[in-house]
Specification:
globular, Rossmann fold, GMP Synthetase, Chain A, domain 3, binds guanosine-5'-triphosphate, alpha/beta, 10 helices, about 300 residues, about 40% helix, binds magnesium ion
Length: about 300
């Protein structure tokens, strides 16, 4: 078995909101990366591990490719480019459409430069007619010489097995990098912070979600009791946003807290006593010191 074991790193790239994190979660069968219908949900590189008899695939979920509007955006673009350079293979996810715009052209340039094998996944096929798919496949075939083009639906799970099969086809022979129980490199605190950010994204409207960060101030397991105490702070950019996040008589914060707690309890498999706070840090997305404090640090993100 040793000799024909395949292994390697696969970057998942694409525009915001195409379903990169949803697909990664689906493949590993666990929710590690948060997802939402708002673009720019993922901010950091998130690593997960898929192990089978055939080999081991290490996925790197990346932020959606978009023009940087602030330092946080620059950080996210850097994450994408450094990830592309670090991996053995690239999986590019697109919407089922034949629109090839500037974001796509930028991605094509980046993958060309990398010289790595690229699999194109046309995701969300559950939303289009089969006949139209041929058209989309055709337009993408014309713009780059992909190793494979695979239509799939991350939500329905269709063709996900084909994606795995095709990754193994192009992955080199190699060692088992992580033991087979490893699912992610994300520390528990980080996953908890991300769950709270996801619930905030889901509960809040419009421009506020993009301006929030979540920091875990403390997370302590009580001795001999199946309970964990968590203090977390939602950081936002404006006083007016703070008011909205707290809501009338604290109703919004309560809703974010309850939905977060439910999911955190399932994750840690014990009761969680979650306390949420809201703080304003003006323009934190453009300040190095805050970015670093909130976990978007170039050096530690590498
Ligand atoms: N209909 C349909 N919706 C999907 C599919 N895959 C993902 N979605 C939805 O698309 C939205 C975005 O999904 P994410 O996984 O957060 O997308 P992403 O590419 O990681 O987004 P960013 O992190 O912002 O770059 C969510 O509302 C998902 O439920 C799919 O196969 N079909
Ligand atoms: Mg994502």
């Amino acid at each position: 078995m040793e000799n024909n074991f395949k292994s390697g790193f696969v970057a998942i790239i694409g525009r915001p909101n195409v379903g990169k994190s949803t697909l990664m979660n689906r493949i590993i069968g666990q929710k590690i990366a948060i997802t939402s219908n708002k673009p720019q949900t993922t901010r950091n590189k998130i690593q997960t591990v898929y192990t089978s008899d055939e080999g081991q695939i290490i996925f790197l979920d990346t932020p959606g490719m978009l023009k940087a509007k602030n330092k946080l955006g620059e950080y996210m673009v850097d994450v994408i480019h450094s990830t592309i350079n670090d991996v053995d293979m690239i999986m590019w996810l697109v919407e089922p459409s034949d629109f090839i715009g500037n974001a796509e052209k930028e991605i094509i340039n980046a993958i060309k430069k990398s010289g790595k094998p690229v699999i194109l996944v046309i995701n969300k096929t559950d939303t289009v007619k089969k006949d139209d798919l041929i058209k989309y496949i055709d337009s993408y075939r014309k713009v780059y010489d992909f190793e494979e083009i695979i239509p799939a639906s991350a939500i329905k799970g269709s063709n996900v097995d084909t994606i795995i099969e095709m990754i193994y086809k192009y992955l080199p022979y190699g060692p088992m990098y992580y033991d087979e129980d490893t699912v992610t490199d994300q520390p528990m605190r980080q996953i908890v912070a991300e769950i709270i950010r996801e619930k905030s994204l889901k509960c809040l409207n419009e421009e506020i979600p993009h301006g929030i960060a979540v920091v875990i101030d403390q997370m302590k397991y009580r001795d001999n009791k199946d309970i964990v105490d968590i203090d977390a702070t939602i950081v936002c950019e404006k006083d007016s946003h703070k008011g909205i996040i707290i809501g009338k008589n604290g109703s919004m914060l309560k809703k974010i807290g309850q939905t977060s707690r439910y999911e955190i309890e399932r994750l840690v498999e014990m009761k969680a006593n979650l306390k949420l706070w809201v703080k304003v840090r003006k323009d934190w997305r453009d300040k190095d010191i805050y970015l670093k404090n909130f976990g978007y640090d170039k050096k530690s993100g590498e």
